[in-house]
Amino acid sequence: MTGDVIGTVGAVVPAVPTLDLHERLISDLEAAGTRYRLIDHPPEGRTDLVSALRGHDVAQAAKCLIVMVKVGKKQTRHVLAVVPGDARLDLQAVKTLLEGTYVAFAGRDKAEELAGSASGTVLPFSYHPRLELIADPALLDSPELFFNAARLDRSIALATDDYVRLAAPRMAPITVTP
């Protein structure tokens, strides 16, 4: 299917619980009528290297990072922060946005548990009720976003407006200005 544009007009339907995360994503993209392409490539999870394999500018990659934010002493929130591949996440901006008292990248085990996939394959969609999705508006500068599809050897190129429509992220500036 590599290079094929897939998708028709349709409604979002709940995914079948027995599907793995990759299959669930494809099912959701199909059901929502999104415009996307599958791209097979050698296994790679680092944004700069996989962008070269996929043949696009790093800025078009949707880099996905899991962040832990403490709000007071008793509440911990987790955020899936999605930023352009050439940008750096501004942890302080996330902390301020959530009115937190402490912020840090989540540990690998916690991040993989919440994301439902291994490091390097985290989707720019949240499938966990305790994982809040926040995307930087700079993602909207590109007509198409690229990200690993819950696998190291397959990526998705997804129309940006379809991403925003389907994922419904909270949009906020969360990158460090160079």
Percent range for β-strand residues = 25-35%
Number of strand segments: 8
Strand order of the largest sheet: 4-2-3-5-8
Main pleated sheet? 5 strands, mixed
The CATH class: Alpha Beta
As residue ranges, the low-confidence spans are 1-18
Helix content: 10-25%
Quote the average pLDDT.
89
Structural class based on helices, strands and sheet pairing:
alpha/beta
Q: Report, as a whole number of angstroms, the end-to-end distance.
A: 38 Å
Please name the CATH architecture.
Alpha-Beta Complex
Q: What is the H/E string? A: HEHEEHEHEEEHE
CATH superfamily: YbaK/aminoacyl-tRNA synthetase-associated domain
- What is the global morphology? globular
Number of helices: 5
Count of all domains: 1
CATH topology: YbaK protein
Using only C-alpha atoms, the radius of gyration works out to 16 Å
Report on this structure.
With 178 residues, the chain is of the alpha/beta class. Helices cover 24% and strands 26% of the residues. It has one domain: YbaK/aminoacyl-tRNA synthetase-associated domain (YbaK protein). Strand 2 and strand 3 form a beta hairpin. The radius of gyration is 16 Å and the shape is globular. The termini are far apart.
